[in-house]
Design brief:
Order of helices and strands: EHEHHEHEHHEEEEHHHHHHHHH
Helix content: 40-55%
Number of helices: 15
Bound molecules: fe (ii) ion
CATH class of the largest domain: Mainly Alpha
Largest sheet: 6 strands, parallel
CATH superfamily of the largest domain: Dehydroquinate synthase-like - alpha domain
Distance between the termini: 36 Å
Strand content: 5-15%
């Protein structure tokens, strides 16, 4: 689509960020410049035992900041963890928050920001949306220690209550500042590197095929795809490969910005309901779903898939679209299988009886609405059936 064919569009460039090895050293100074004095530092038990939480706490204390630490975030952040971070924020009279961790920690902190600024429960926010203006300046620094979710720059948070898992979006949720330090990812194990890397690829793919036109979204989506596709294997096979780690971290960040500009596709739209009804991981669910949605999308998105295949060098410039698109699907499936990720929803705990509810929830997703080919509840149900 030529630029003059595209409807009016807006752009908000990502939040300010610093990128580079060792950039974590500037975190205290950054918070002080935001006006922070008392900080909630939220993280998980793994990073605590690895010593990273203490290192960051020391950097904050050295800048004269009071630090209250919470390290209870789990891989699928739940309401109780959001409440714990919020409660610490209130009882310690903090004025700022740092999320140190993967997407789970960043999203749990986003949930705490919503609790702080709205005073409402997550279920109420899920049901009624978010309309409140912030009651105070947001001072929220995100420090990703994985390269995957893009949550370090998006306006969205994926959160789970006892009733459901949903994506919440609000201007209050974009981190005020993001520190992208590839050295913080060097110890991430291969399995988690693969899982988060697949998420980056699916974000870039979803951005590039979403039905919402945005030339800058395409630009960052393509750059994220090119960098992630070229370095995911290296990052998994040698975690100490700082170049591959840097490329994946930048790809995650760029894909996250692409999500903000264009949204994603039904790969994510069909994934969130599976994660809502089971305890599977985001990546395992995506890994099962993507080939099915891509094949469903072929009549509409085949040429786009072919363009991506040529861009990442797995199809030649003269290859026919259908062959190049098929090569892209095969390439991504081979990557998933190489990483040992599941290929059926049954392995993730999905039962045939869940299909109507999965299909119903998929229709509520903005990602499903952004799919290049319209995907109604009947089509979603048929896809779920074939994936079990
Ligand atoms: Fe994702």
């Amino acid at each position: 689509m030529a630029v003059h064919d595209i409807p009016m569009f807006g752009v908000a460039w990502p939040n300010p960020a610093s990128f580079g090895c060792g950039s974590i050293a500037g975190i205290g100074d950054r918070l002080r410049r935001l006006g922070a004095t008392r900080v909630v530092l939220a993280s998980d038990a793994g990073l605590k035992s690895a010593g990273l939480v203490d290192r960051v706490a020391e950097l904050l204390a050295a800048a004269g900041l009071h630090v209250s630490t919470y390290t209870g975030v789990s891989p699928n952040p739940r309401e109780a963890e959001v409440e714990a971070i919020h409660s610490l924020w209130e009882t310690e009279a903090c004025d700022s928050v740092v999320a140190l961790g993967g997407g789970s920690t960043i999203d749990a902190v986003k949930g705490a920001c919503l609790r702080r600024f709205t005073g409402r429960s997550l279920d109420s926010l899920f049901d009624e949306g978010i309309h409140e203006a912030p009651r105070e300046p947001l001072r929220f620094v995100a420090v990703p220690t994985t390269s995957g979710t893009g949550s370090e720059t998006t306006l969205g948070a994926v959160l789970k209550t006892p009733r459901r898992k949903l994506v919440l979006r609000s201007e209050h949720l974009r981190p005020t500042f993001t520190i992208l330090d590839p050295e913080l990812v060097l110890t991430l194990p291969p399995r988690a590197t693969a899982a988060t890397g697949i998420d980056v690829l699916m974000h870039a793919l979803g951005v590039l095929t979403s039905n919402r036109p945005h030339p800058l979204g395409d630009m960052v989506g393509a750059e994220a795809m090119r960098r992630a596709a070229g370095h995911i294997r290296r990052a998994v096979e040698n975690g100490k490969d700082i170049e591959a780690r840097s490329e994946m971290m930048l790809a995650s960040y760029l894909a996250g910005h692409g999500i903000h500009l264009k949204g994603v596709d039904a790969i994510h739209g069909l994934s969130t309901p599976v994660e809502s009804l089971t305890d599977c991981t985001h990546a395992d669910s995506l890994g099962v779903i993507f080939p099915h949605v891509m094949r469903f999308n072929m009549p509409v998105a085949g040429a786009r898939y072919a363009w991506i295949a040529r861009m990442i060098g797995i199809a030649g410039p003269d290859e026919a679209d259908d062959r190049a698109a098929a090569a892209l699907i095969a390439h991504l499936v081979a990557l998933r299988d190489h990483f040992g990720m599941p290929s059926r929803l049954g392995a993730l705990g999905v039962q045939p009886s869940m299909v109507p509810e999965l299909a119903r929830q998929a229709q509520l997703s903005a990602a499903t609405k952004g799919n290049p080919r319209a995907l109604d509840a009947a089509a979603a149900a048929a896809l779920y059936e074939e994936m079990i």
